[in-house]
Design a protein that fits this description.
The complex is a heterodimer. By secondary structure, chain A is an alpha/beta fold. Helices cover about 40% and strands about 20% of the residues of chain A. Chain A has a 6-stranded mixed beta sheet, with helices on both faces. In chain A, strands 2-1-4-5 form a 4-stranded antiparallel beta sheet, covered by helices on one side. Classes of the chains: A alpha/beta, B mainly alpha.
């Protein structure tokens, strides 16, 4: 059963120029069809202005499509009566950690969502405890959000969404303003929630390293859904991704470059371990044609040295 | 430059006054202010005794209480001088057109005491109550005003959000200031007008960013199902304990004593 389903989704808005000239119609999202199954970890990729954030706002009924339909847990976002139900089922975490925390105490902020839903006081406290524990922020419950790091603030925001007991969390570039440590912290927290709680996660990002954990990846460009598949399938198309102004993980890039040089490495390598395996296979007498030998260097030792240089962990 | 601004200077301590319901403290402060204007002469002794017993109970050092006076000392001297020289009555000292009267001395002293006690009284409330609790108290006390369409919940929400964003905007001001200084802006020299003008390049980006933040926050609140005060439950509902009722009784007795002193005994 799909938790989120878009049917020919379109979203246009008028863009007004600075000197009152005629407004132009901008097609932010065009003819998007997608289905997201419950419990999946989904990543949506795209460079700036590709319409990925606009699409995300549709999943929370913050925006209503100008054409087509968006279904969230079988509810049509066009229906005004169901807006609050939709927002409870599909929680949203935004980019700027400061601008989404409402209260000056961590635990009160986590309680903000349940308060809005009219949950009884005792139950609010239970949910607050529970979600702070799940995001590993229980030790900071009495702190002021201003004293936390960016990654911790985002985890508070995630806890705030979890306290509403959503079926799905939409994260709109949650790591864009964080340092590498904070990024890792936040991604780890969502992956845990996805695994242990079975919450559907929709991660919008332009960091490729975060995408490799996803069950399914959607790539957007100019408002259209241009690619769709598992991370391995997506990253097998390195050149297409470059055309869409997207980077691929460094290992994938390296494997792709070696493959172009004639080395027998499969497409879509995602991790260093996989890369090492592939190289090992070649060293242990994988079939290398004469032609490729020439491309790589004359004798096997030289080839091995090359592989060693590429990946020091091999030795 | 912005470090001096303190709003809600809460002094954490474990005292009876800290534990009281914020509504009691709010009403108590109001009653105290009224009593200050009821007192005529000897009533001030009662006011002083009451004030110092509460300070004692609150376990907040007296120095903290007096800190609040720094902000108003110009106003205090201004009021006292005006009262001293402009009150008509029996002249005790004269120099040209300036004259001091017996009544003038009395009024000036009274106004001085009133202002000082008023500030200390309010300080007790802000020092022993967190800003969030104060906001809750106001929301709860003014709830009847909703009948006349005063958006009580919304005002309280605005206050608590303002409290949350004050430190963030301060930090941002500092950043913008440093960025402008790095590009050669000068905030230190020149006369008052030049310095005020120099603030414009700080304020414009600050306002732009404040609006952006407001927009983001509104979106985030809507995403978390915020739709005003209706149908909302509270995480920490305010419930009166027996000590709060006792405090109300003490306050009423105090107010009654103040009125009796003035109206019956004419002290």
């Amino acid at each position: 059963m799909s938790i989120i389903k878009a049917d020919n989704l379109n979203y246009d808005y008028l863009e007004y120029g600075e000197d009152g000239e005629k407004p132009e119609i901008t097609h932010a999202v065009r003819d998007v069809n997608l289905k997201i199954k419950e419990g999946q970890f989904i990543a949506i990729l795209g460079h700036n202005g590709s319409g990925k954030s606009t699409l995300a706002k549709h999943m929370n009924a913050l925006l209503v499509p100008t054409g087509g339909t968006m279904w969230v847990d079988q509810m049509d976002t066009h229906e005004d009566d169901e807006v609050w139900d939709i927002r409870q089922r599909a929680g949203m975490v935004f980019q700027n950690p400061d601008n989404q925390i409402v209260s000056s105490v961590v635990e009160e902020d986590v309680g903000f969502g349940p308060e809005n839903l009219g949950v009884p006081t005792d139950e609010i406290w239970k949910r607050v405890d529970d979600s702070l524990r799940k995001t590993g922020m229980i030790a900071y419950r009495h702190h002021s959000p201003n004293k936390l790091s960016g990654g911790q603030k985002q985890r508070v925001a995630i806890a705030g969404v979890m306290a509403m007991k959503p079926k799905c969390i939409i994260m709109d570039e949650p790591t864009a303003m964080l340092d590498p440590n904070g990024r890792h912290e936040v991604i780890q927290a969502v992956r845990d929630l996805n695994k242990s709680e079975g919450v559907t996660v929709i991660l919008i990002t332009h960091y490729m390293e975060e995408v490799i954990y996803a069950d399914n990846v959607f790539v957007m460009d100019e408002g259209r859904l241009v690619m769709q598949g598992t991370p391995r399938e997506i990253f097998s198309h390195v050149d297409e991704l470059h055309e869409l102004r997207l980077d691929v993980p460094h290992v994938t890039q390296l494997a792709h470059a070696l493959r172009l040089k004639g080395l027998d490495i499969p497409e879509g390598i995602l991790s260093i371990d996989e890369f090492v395996d592939a190289i090992m296979k070649i060293r242990d007498g994988g079939a290398v044609s004469d032609e490729r030998k020439q491309a790589l260097g004359e004798n096997p030792e030289e080839r091995e040295n090359k592989a060693d240089r590429e990946n020091p962990s091999l030795t | 430059m912005f470090k001096d601004i303190t709003i809600g200077q809460y002094y954490p301590a474990d005292s009876l006054i800290h534990k009281l319901d914020p509504r009691v403290k709010f009403v108590g402060t109001l009653i105290y202010i009224i009593s200050l204007f009821v007192f005529h002469t000897w009533g001030y002794v009662l006011g002083t005794v009451f004030l110092f017993s509460v300070i004692r109970l609150s376990k907040v050092p007296l120095g903290f209480m007096l800190r609040g006076l720094k902000a108003i000392w110009i106003l205090l001297i201004f009021t006292m001088v005006l009262n001293l020289f402009l009150t008509q009555g029996t002249v005790v000292w004269q120099f040209g057109i300036l004259h001091i009267t017996r009544e003038g001395i009395g009024t000036a002293a009274k106004m001085g005491i009133r202002l000082v006690y008023l500030i200390i009284g309010c300080s007790i409330m802000t020092l022993t109550t967190t800003p969030n609790k104060l906001t809750d108290a106001m929301e709860s006390l003014f709830r009847p005003l909703r009948k006349v369409h005063v958006p009580v919940h919304e005002i309280a929400m605005m206050m608590s959000i303002a409290l949350r964003f004050i430190p963030i905007l301060m930090e941002e001001t500092d950043k913008i200031k440093k960025a402008q200084m790095a590009r050669g802006a000068d905030f230190e020299s020149g006369n008052v007008i030049q310095r005020v003008k120099a603030m414009v390049p700080i304020l414009v980006p600050l306002f732009v960013s404040a609006f952006r933040r407001a927009n983001d926050l509104a979106l985030a609140m809507e995403a978390r199902c915020y739709h005003g005060g209706d149908g909302r439950t509270q995480m920490r509902p305010l419930v009166y304990q027996s000590r709060d009722l006792a405090a109300y009784a003490v306050l009423l007795a105090y107010l009654a004593a103040a009125i009796v002193l003035r109206a019956v005994l004419h002290w």
